[in-house]
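Title: Comparing notes on inverse folding

I've been comparing how different people in this forum approach sequence design from structure. To keep things fair, I'm posting one structure and asking everyone to reply with a full sequence. Here's the target:
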């Protein structure tokens, strides 16, 4: 066992893990301690790590199979490693990158697929002098602090998640956006989900939801706004201020996050992300919705296409 130390950074989420070199193979005891800390703190911060793409991939695989990012436009992936999504505001091939404004509204990674990511490992390569923080919200607490009556209502509710609600998507190359939409038709997920490892329930909300099934647009918008405001209350949030070399690992099954655009956009911000493949399909395509839901779904989908 190494000298691994885990120090909480926030009440709702976040812990720093030091005394470990992620380039070295992880033994079973440390893997277990990291996994336990991850389940407890939702976001782990490993400071001062300088990993090559291959080293990042090898470390990430300790926590599950990696997504090959088929939901993403190929131009946004690392040329040699499709397990790595490159989030950059630098030009790529002389053109604005398809990820220059990624993550700018509250979301859970790949919620616009039927099998959202289990988690992600994001490694900071370059950052602006100030700003460009990322905030994470604990969706267990969000669920647990709702009234029993509201929780009961939400238990049976399903939401329509839609890739076209990614904030700022209209500023991206239209060909890339068309590709993203083609790869990711709208999907339906439950609003309350059970974490496969902890057994705890969490509130599966965010700003990439168009509405709820069987609920009018008006009701949906009010309810969604209330749930998102509640879920992202400052008390439930850990805000990470990045340093180059940080590797963050978050549990996507019980949290959501947002990348803030509060920085000088002429300064580079570059992050490499591995996504852990979701273990279970929690969603279904909207086009497969039951006939009873169809009419309302069609209204919503018509607004999308
Ligand atoms: O760039 C960031 O800080 C996070 C972007 C994001 O949402 C992600 O990598 O999943
Ligand atoms: Fe994200």
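Reply #1:
Here's my take.
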């Amino acid at each position: 066992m190494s000298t691994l130390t885990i120090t909480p950074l926030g009440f709702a989420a976040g812990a720093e893990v030091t005394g470990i070199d992620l380039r070295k193979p992880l033994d079973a005891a440390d893997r277990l301690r990291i996994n336990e800390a991850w389940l407890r703190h939702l976001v782990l911060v490993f400071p001062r790590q300088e990993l090559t793409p291959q080293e990042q991939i090898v470390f990430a695989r300790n926590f599950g199979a990696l997504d090959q990012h088929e939901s993403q436009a190929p131009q946004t992936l690392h040329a040699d490693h499709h397990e790595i999504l490159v989030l950059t505001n630098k030009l790529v091939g002389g053109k604005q990158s398809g990820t220059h404004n990624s993550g700018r509204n509250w979301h859970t990674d790949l919620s616009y697929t039927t099998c959202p990511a289990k988690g992600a490992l994001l490694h900071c390569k370059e950052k602006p002098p100030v700003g460009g923080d990322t905030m994470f919200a604990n969706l267990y607490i969000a669920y647990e602090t709702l009234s029993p009556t509201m929780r009961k209502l939400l238990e049976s509710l399903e939401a329509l998640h839609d890739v076209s609600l990614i904030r700022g998507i209209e500023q991206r190359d239209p060909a890339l956006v068309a590709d993203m939409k083609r790869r990711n038709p709208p999907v339906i997920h439950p609003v309350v989900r059970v974490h496969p490892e902890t057994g705890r329930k969490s509130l599966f909300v965010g700003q990439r939801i168009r509405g709820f099934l069987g609920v009018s647009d008006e009701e949906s918008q009010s309810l969604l706004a209330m749930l998102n405001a509640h879920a992202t209350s400052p008390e439930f949030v850990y805000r990470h201020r990045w340093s180059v070399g940080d590797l963050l690992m978050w549990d996507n099954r019980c949290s959501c996050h947002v990348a803030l655009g509060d920085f000088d956009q002429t300064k580079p911000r570059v992050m490499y992300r591995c996504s852990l493949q979701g273990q279970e399909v929690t969603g279904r395509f909207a086009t497969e919705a039951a006939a009873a839901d169809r009419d309302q779904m069609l209204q919503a989908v018509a607004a999308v296409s």
